[in-house]
Amino acid sequence: MTEQVGVWLYAVTRATDAAAGSGSITGVAGEPVRAVVSDALAAFVGSVPLEVFGEQPLRRNLEDLDWLAATARAHDAVVSALVRRGPTVPLRLATVFLDDERVRELLDTRRADFIAALTLVTGRTEWGVKAYTDRATLTAAVADARAASTGSGKGTGTAYLARRRAELSAQETVERDAAERAEAVHARLVRHAAAGRRQAATDPALSGRRDWMVLNGTYLVDDDHAADFAATVNELGKELPGIRLEITGPWPPYSFAGVDQEPI
């Protein structure tokens, strides 16, 4: 009996950039990755067994965190290999089509979207910036700033009372203060990027961190401005006591593809 297969979609590039082929790249099922071309666009895909990657088995497998992690790494390895060759629009994990013809239909119906996305990501890479704090640290930092702004020292009873009032005020406004600092960081970084987005905070169960994440941002940065962007992150970390910033990347531009499509 012939094994039933579907077509797993990894990413889309310009057809001219796909001319060199996918070489020895293998995908989520260990399958060779190949290009499906339609006019100016090329989709990189792999043939995968539906008994594992079909709709129902895939739904079950995605609940297995170990399987999900391994599959996500394999998917990202393909996308990363393509990004190194030229502008690439990554597609979300687990986009499976019935056959190559359905992939060509996607390229045809979403042609303008893919071309716009490729134009946006050309010469640019995605970077992630996360901001962390905890209530005690942020409260102390805000109280210090407020006490300093009123000229309160620490050597007199009056100064002590002023300091105590600043601490109580900071405790009451910690949520607002965290939100204001996160927005300040994001707004500044967007000015140094071609595009930026605020994502949902990462689940601590997945990140393994207990810190309070107040910003989970992704930024599309010109490759020749990456050093300036990183320097801006460093400056912000110094300017905002109580906030810890972490920068990661470069990554494929997953957050800026904007052309995810339901499987057909």
From TrEMBL:
Transmembrane stretches, start-end: none
PANTHER family: PROTEIN GVPL 2
Subcellular location: Gas vesicle
Main localization (coarse): other
Coiled coil: none
The family this protein is said to belong to: Belongs to the gas vesicle GvpF/GvpL family.
One Pfam short name: GvpL_GvpF
Keyword terms: Gas vesicle
Protein's UniProt name: GvpL/GvpF family gas vesicle protein
InterPro entries per UniProt: GvpL/GvpF (IPR009430)
